[in-house]
Design goal:
The complex is a heterodimer of chains A (310) and B (127). With 310 residues, chain A is mainly β. Chain A is built from no helices and 24 strands. The radius of gyration of chain A is 28 Å and the shape is elongated. The chains are: A mainly beta (310), B mainly beta (127).
């Protein structure tokens, strides 16, 4: 259960593939220094040692010409040990996949624009009655079918894949070709803003980024912040209306604290839920945050976030 | 039509998603920023009170998060009130953390002759 093939063209040639009519070039790339380029009816294909079921086949594609004029340009094709299994085409700018077992075609709806990189990936599960396919563009489902016949002949899995893209004048650039029998391999379209001195294309350390949107683990989205005074014995209710318990931070400016000499001072501290010795506490519900003060009047400072906590 | 920059989670349509929890970046919302991070090692010689200069870049800091690491390797967010935060082995404990514009103050209520590692984050101030 693993990645079966990764063709990045980073060798500067097409040697990663079993055969290639297209070329490696460095002018238009998705990632790294090289990408493939196909012209009219050229392609790159890879033959594995045996068939794999299921099989995920991924590629980055970018067309240099208006795709709305496309007339069944071949994009991705899959083959079993002995038979053709599917062919995905670009017709009038949208993807269309035909299953060889039944000669049935399924058509998407997203028009692919010229000069834009697209992540295109297919999941193919081969079975004569419980077969399934799913085509994703940039990680979003474009075509999905299940409980269909996807088994052409006696093949047991996908053994060969072909990356093409264009059957007309122009160029289809190809990059990040992948075959996998366990997981999707598409590259997310994301946003990175690195700190000065770090390469946003290659650096993988989150701390080196101002924005690293590859994962949702850096930025928290603020809903509101409030600075006020809570009366002695009072309660402050901060409405958030999320419908869930959000992440929040609450502080009080209290005279209950002590400095390093043990003298009472007025200072800031973060507060949580009530414990045995506190005169003040806060708790969150699905509609609001409540700050309770059983002591004397004091300032409070609270931040509410959109991010779900529970 | 308002123009925004958005990145959604995998499988979510960035053009139509309304649940903010499914948006990794959304320029329509403020992303809460850490303005300063600091670390210090405190030599605790006795169970008594200590202070650390937090070096906040703000003239009046109002929000921070603090983590402490005890000699047994356990790490915790120390209590900001009278409840003690105790190390995993039960030997060390701190309580009553607070801060003003210059210092953290805290009480080492158990253990002596050890090094307490402290790290902290200082957040955006109130507007």
């Amino acid at each position: 259960m693993a990645n079966l093939f990764a063709g990045s063209f980073e060798t500067g040639d097409t040697s990663q593939f079993t055969s290639a009519g297209g070329t490696a070039q460095a002018s238009v790339v998705y990632g790294g220094a090289y990408a493939g380029a196909n012209t009219d009816n050229t392609n790159f294909y890879k033959v594995l040692q045996h068939g794999h079921n299921p099989c995920y086949i991924h590629g980055m594609f970018r067309w240099s010409v208006d795709t709305s004029t496309s007339n069944n340009w071949f994009v991705l094709l899959g083959y079993g040990e002995a038979n053709d299994q599917f062919y995905m085409q670009l017709a009038n700018g949208v993807l269309k996949i035909t299953i060889n077992a039944t000669n049935t075609a399924y058509t998407g709806h997203t028009v692919l624009l010229p000069n834009v990189w697209y992540s295109i990936e297919i999941y193919y599960y081969m079975d004569s009655s419980a077969g399934a396919i799913e085509v994703r563009i940039n990680g979003v489902t474009e075509i999905a079918q299940s409980l269909i016949n996807t088994k052409n002949g006696s093949d047991t899995g996908i053994m060969k894949a072909k990356w093409q893209g264009i059957n007309a004048a122009g160029t289809c650039y190809v990059d990040d070709c992948q075959m996998d029998d366990a997981a999707w391999n598409y590259r997310k379209i994301t946003m990175r803003v690195s700190l000065p001195g770090y390469n946003a294309l290659t650096d993988g350390t989150i701390d080196h980024y101002s924005i690293f949107a590859d994962s949702d683990n850096v930025l928290i989205k603020e809903q509101s912040r409030t600075l006020g005074t809570i009366a002695s014995g009072g309660t402050v209710t901060l409405t958030h209306g999320s419908g869930y318990v959000p992440f929040y931070l609450t502080y009080i400016n209290s005279g209950y604290y002590y400095d390093d000499r043990g003298s009472a001072i007025t200072a800031w501290g973060m507060i949580g839920h009530q414990d045995v010795s506190s005169n003040y506490y806060a708790y969150a519900g699905t509609g609001d945050i409540k700050i309770i003060n059983a002591g004397s009047a004091m300032k409070y400072n609270s931040y509410l976030f959109y991010d779900r906590n529970a | 039509m308002t123009q925004v920059i958005r990145v959604s989670k995998q499988g979510k349509d960035v053009l139509t998603e309304t649940d903010r929890n499914n948006l990794i970046v959304d320029s329509a919302e403020n992303t809460f920023k850490i303005l300063y991070t600091g670390t210090a090692s405190i030599t605790v010689t006795a169970a008594t009170r200590y202070k650390i200069a937090h070096n906040s870049p703000l003239p009046a800091a109002t929000s921070m998060l603090v983590m402490v690491k005890f000699p047994d390797g356990s790490v915790t967010m120390p209590s900001w009130n009278n409840t003690t935060s105790v190390s995993k082995d039960g030997t060390y404990a701190v309580s009553q953390w607070c801060f003003d514009n210059t210092y953290f103050y805290f009480n080492c209520v158990a253990g002596s002759s050890y090094t307490l590692a402290v790290s902290w984050l200082i957040f955006e101030p109130q507007l």
